[in-house]
Each structure stands twice: as C-alpha cells, then as structure tokens.
Amino acid sequence: MTAAPDAHDDLRLPRQPGVVRRFWARHEQLADWLIAIFWGLPATLITLISLITSSHTALGRWGAVIAALLVVASCAGIRLRRTRPVLAFGVLCIALIPVPFTDTGASELIPVFGVYSLAVYRSNAAAWVGAGIVEAASTLYVWLASPFGAARTASHLPAQWVPIFGFELLIALAIGITVGNRKRYLAALIDRARQLARERDQQALLAAVAERARIARDMHDVVSHSLTVMVTLADGSALAAQTDAARAAAAMRQVADTGREALSGMRQMLGVLGSDREEATLAPQPTAADLPRLVERFRELGLPIAFRSEGALPEDPALELAVYRIVQEGLTNALRYSHGPTRVEVLIDADGDPIAVVVDDDGLPGMPTPSVGAGRGLIGLGERVASLGGTLSSGHHDNGAGWHLAAALPRNPQPRSKEST
C-alpha cells in the first residue's frame, strides 16, 4: 500500500540561489566536518607548535600536548551546533584555555564560532548572553593567567584582550544575527505556507464531506421513497392478481411510473455529478405545489391521510423543498412501518413563525416493525432542517403507538455557514 501524499509536498518553494549554497544545504554534516578540520586542525597545530617552542610559558611539553588536545576536543562542538547550540557553545569555549600561554592565540577564534552558532540556531538573545558571558569569563581568566602566560601576545593583559576579543565577538554576532534572522524568517514563511496548504486540504475535505452528505440525503429522498411505493404497489398487485386482474395491472403500471420518476431523479443527480461535458437533466425541485399530488399518491396506496395546510409558505425554494421532504419522509415511514393506522395526519401551519410541519399516525401499539434502513432518512432530514436554522423531533407516542414527526422552520431561514457548523 502506498503512503498517502504529504499535504506539504505541493508547496512551490523557490530554490536557494547559487549552486554552492544549495550543495551545502543538502550536505550539512559534510559542512560541519570540513569546518572542524579546516578551522580546528590549523588552530591545534599552531597552538601545539607555539607552546612547544615558546620559552615564556610555565607549561612544559606535556602541558603543550594537553593544551593541543583541549583544542581538538573543543572542535567537537562544531558537530553539535545545529541540534544543541548551547552545549556546542560550552564545548567550543574550551579552546580558550591555552590562549594566554601561546604567542599567537590562534584558538581564540573557535569560541567566536560558538557565538555565531547561538545566534543562528538558538536565538539572538542567547547569542548576546553567550557573548557577554564568554567575554567576562575570558577576561577574568586572562587576568589570572597572565603572570604565567606568554609576554609577546596581545592576550596576556586584560586591557588588550577586551577590545580585541570583543571586536571578534561583535563581528560574529552581526553575521550570526543576520543569518539567524533570515533563517527564522524563511522557516516562518515555510511554516505559514504549510499551514495554508493544510487548511486548504481541510477545507476541501470538509467540502467533500458536506457534498457527500448532501448527495446521500438526496439519494435517500429519491430512492427510498420510490422503492417503498414500488414495493407496496407490487405487494398489492401480487395479492390482487388472482381476484382482480385489472386492479393488479393498474398497480403494476403505477410501479412502472414510479420507477421512471425515480430514474429521472437519479439521472438528474448523476448528471450534476458528471463531468463538465455531460449536460445534467434540468428539472425543477419539488415545491409546496407538489404536496397534494404526493399525498394523493400515498392515499392510493391505502394510507388514510388527512391533509391540512394553513397559510401560505414563503416563496423560498429551499424552504419549500424542506417542507416537501419532511412530508415525504413522514409518509414513507408511515407506509413502511406503521401497523393498521386509522389516521395519518399531515399538518402544515404557515401562519406563524416558525412554520410547523407535522406528520402523525396512530399505528397499533406494541407492534414495532424492525427498521430495514440505516436511519439515514431522519439523519439527512435533521441536517436539512438544521441548515435552515430549524429543529426536528420524532418518536413514538407515550402509549407506544404510531409515530410523530415534527419540524419547526423559520419563515426567513438563515442558512448556517460552514464555520458555525
């Protein structure tokens, strides 16, 4: 199984300018090794030769070897500077130990690289603090070690050490802060681009989920209603086939008509889902004017429906479609699950605000019919009503008989935005 594509892979980031810069960006470890070799190795050799040949220090030959080893050990901080810049800074400062005892002070530049690394890989504040600490500590150390150190180097007195080493630290701070700020700014831009890409993908996913829910709701409204009517008509036709052939034939014609209507509705939805080259079959959505025909169809199937409509619905296509679907779902469920109802009441009260839509039947108590569906109808109906700012309730009566479906819809529906849902 192939891994899912990363949401960040399609970020169209500009390439870094320069072949050399791109090479070092791809080979960070190689860059650190080369810095350690070409910076640390000369400093180590110069320190060792200076200590061995100098006649002004209190260190012997073995002390010179130990001092050179300290310089070598300090170069290990270069390998830590990207992941642990504070620890790397501390390790690099070890190179200051032999400085007062040499004639050249070649290893004093190694801690300067530690200050640069703090600015680039930690923060500007950490770099300033680190520079201040190493400047103060090294000045005190030079002052204490000056009686035992070399006399021909600028680092044997604090008055000479402070400006020279301080100037080196300021240069490292200036370069490190510039590089670090640019690095952090680019990282922030890339992170923001990744967040935007992630939000874009999330919005696309939410839109796909919402569209999938809408399609499922519309599919249920068309297919479930039509199939329920067709099954009922087919059962009635089978019972009447031997006693009343004309009635059975009429029922089967109604089955065919209902199937054609279902196919037409399915073609309309599939046409909308098809490619841009496919022309969708344009047909108006059901409105309040289609309710009497819907009620009459269910009456023909044997439901004792009492239909009552008070007031006029506002001319809002979404509201009229919602009222139609509520009545359709209520009557479909009554036909499918209600046992021996003597009354199926359909009430649409459009005089007030909110508009009330009620479908109520008095099926026999204690005779529940197991649901053959997944409950998608009521869920989709609730989503449709909620999208208009209304409420939906359903359930059995207190005595366990029949089923009650009621919706309250505002006269001026305000569709909820995606953010509020």
TrEMBL record:
Region Disordered, annotated ranges: 399-421
Catalytic activity: ATP + protein L-histidine = ADP + protein N-phospho-L-histidine
TM helices/strands, residue ranges: 30-53, 59-78, 85-101, 161-180
InterPro entries: HATPase_C_sf, HATPase_dom, Sensor_HK_TwoCompSys, Sig_transdc_His_kin_sub3_dim/P
Domain Histidine kinase/HSP90-like ATPase: 320-382
Signal transduction histidine kinase subgroup 3 dimerisation and phosphoacceptor domain boundaries: 211-274
Molecular-function annotations in GO: kinase activity
UniProt entry keywords in alphabetical sequence: ATP-binding, Kinase, Membrane, Nucleotide-binding, Phosphoprotein, Transferase, Transmembrane, Transmembrane helix, Two-component regulatory system
Class in the EC hierarchy, top level: transferase
Source domain of life: Bacteria
Enzyme Commission number(s) of this protein: 2.7.13.3
Pfam family, one: HisKA_3
PANTHER family to which the protein is assigned, alphabetical: NITRATE/NITRITE SENSOR PROTEIN NARX-RELATED, NITRATE_NITRITE SENSOR PROTEIN NARQ
The protein's name in its UniProt record: histidine kinase
Organism: Gryllotalpicola koreensis
